[in-house]
Every structure is written in structure tokens, then in C-alpha cells.
Design brief:
alpha/beta; six-stranded mixed β-sheet; three-stranded parallel β-sheet; 262 residues
């Protein structure tokens, strides 16, 4: 988990509790303090300190470098990713561990999410992603194949693929692409594994020059690695230009909910 100054203390408590109370309890929770925090966040960290392995970045490095440091510090081969404002289903880890035990060729397994505003009962949508390696490798040529906060993976394989790296808003997608290039195997469970908190400004944040350039950079990387052809590259870039650069925020929100969520 990577924590930075803008997180809300109550959200952090809920996220930590949802992992501490898993049916198969993690024997280590690595929390990266990515730069200085508020007094309120420090108070939460202090309250949970006996259950945390803390890594402290003196300055805010960003999500990719923070997760890179966090993963290096993990002592276990199986690592579950979690965000500091979401709520994991309490048997999430058990389901993923059992799946990986039964499918030793799989490197990474994620699952589905429900998105909510303010309260988990206020569900605004679900992001449903494919389940099999073949489906996921095809899907990732157009969109990110995993819900990042749901994944559990083998640390050694992720390290082999280069670990997390800095790539604005797409640190996870960039890692999945490198895992695919390394011919590691993917899977998603059909189950909802995490209740994902979204803000009313989420769709606004998925637009603008910086976000668009990041997305186009990912497409160019896949093109250069021959994961996609020129036709797919142009179609993907055209869709992103329309949605992320030219579309008003309210319309972008409608498009995401209509076409990217169930």
C-alpha cells in the first residue's frame, strides 16, 4: 500500500481493517509513506504501527517508485496490492491464494470491482474484466486488463519484469505489458474482490494533456514492442483523443459509465 498526504484518515482505517480482518490474514502489511503526511494520517499509522511494516520516503516519489520500494521490502513471494482508500472483501486473499495454489503456472490473479461514492452501499458501477490468460492478453491491446487494487502476484516474477516503474496514471498497465512480454500467465477471478472508492471528480481526472500523453505513450510502447499493429494503435489513440482531450468532463463521465462500466 502506498500512502500520500491527500488521503483521508477514515478511508485509510477502513482499508487497513479490511486487510487485517481477512479470512487468511496477511503476516505482513507493507505501507509506504510516500512523502510527508498530515498529523491525522500519522495518528492512524501510529495506531496500527504494530501491524505494519513501514517504508518512509522523505519526499513524494509518486506511485510507481513508491510501489517499487514497497515490493522490494516484501518478505513473501505472494504479494497482494491494495489501495489506501478501498475496502477489500474479507475472503479476497483466501480466494486468490487458493487459486494460485491450484494454478501454479499463473503469475498474477486479479478480480472484479464494485465502485462506490461515500458508502459501499452506494454502488455506481462495476468494472468487469476478462478471466483467462488468452482473453486478458487480447483485452490488454485496447485497455488495462486488471483492476490494480485487486491483484495478487508472485514477487519474483514481477521483479524479473522490472518491478513497478514511474508512468503517470499507468504504472500498473506498464507493468502488465512487461509481464506479458515476459510470457508470464494472467488470470482474473469472476468474484468482486474490492469495493473501490471513487470521487465525483474521477472522470475529470481521466482527461487533460498529461493523462492523454501517458495513455498515448503506453500505446506507442506496445506498438514498438509489436504487441499491436499500426491500425490498432491509430484506433486506440483516436478513441483516447476523443474521450480524454476533446470531450467535456460531464460527457466523459457518461461515456465511462455507459461503455466502460456495467
Amino acid at each position: 500500500m502506498s500512502l500520500y498526504i491527500k488521503e483521508k484518515p477514515d478511508y485509510l482505517r477502513h482499508a487497513l481493517d479490511s486487510m487485517i480482518n481477512q479470512t487468511i490474514k496477511p503476516d505482513e502489511i507493507v505501507l509506504v509513506e510516500d512523502g510527508p503526511l498530515t498529523d491525522e494520517l500519522y495518528a492512524v499509522v501510529e495506531a496500527y504501527k504494530d501491524q505494519l511494516h513501514l517504508i518512509v520516503n522523505n519526499t513524494n516519489l509518486g506511485l510507481g517508485p513508491a510501489l517499487n520500494r514497497g515490493l522490494e521490502a516484501c518478505k513473501n513471494e505472494l504479494v497482494a496490492r491494495m489501495d489506501t482508500d478501498d475496502i477489500a472483501v474479507l475472503d479476497r486473499c483466501e480466494k486468490q491464494i487458493r487459486f494460485l495454489e491450484d494454478n501454479p503456472a499463473i503469475t498474477i490473479v486479479g478480480g472484479q470491482i464494485e465502485e462506490f461514492i461515500d458508502d459501499p452501499s452506494n454502488i455506481t458501477g462495476r468494472r468487469i474484466v476478462p478471466e483467462t490468460d488468452k482473453e486478458l492478453k487480447a483485452y490488454m491491446k485496447k485497455r488495462c486488463p486488471f483492476n490494480h487494487m485487486t491483484v495478487m502476484f508472485k514477487k519474483s516474477d514481477v521483479i524479473k519484469a522490472g518491478n513497478y516503474q514511474d508512468w503517470f496514471w499507468n504504472e500498473d498497465y506498464f507493468l502488465w505489458i512487461r509481464l506479458a512480454l515476459g510470457e508470464f500467465k494472467f488470470a482474473n477471478l469472476p468474484d468482486i474482490l474490492v469495493h473501490t472508492r471513487i470521487g465525483t471528480d474521477m472522470y475529470k481526472r481521466r482527461g487533460g494533456d498529461k493523462y492523454f500523453k501517458s495513455e498515448i505513450g503506453i500505446q506507442k510502447f506496445m506498438l514498438d514492442k509489436k504487441m499491436i499493429g499500426c491500425g490498432t494503435y491509430l484506433i486506440n489513440c483516436g478513441k483516447r483523443l476523443m474521450v480524454e482531450k476533446l470531450m467535456p468532463d460531464k460527457l466523459r463521465g457518461w461515456v465511462f459509465q455507459k461503455f466502460a462500466r456495467s
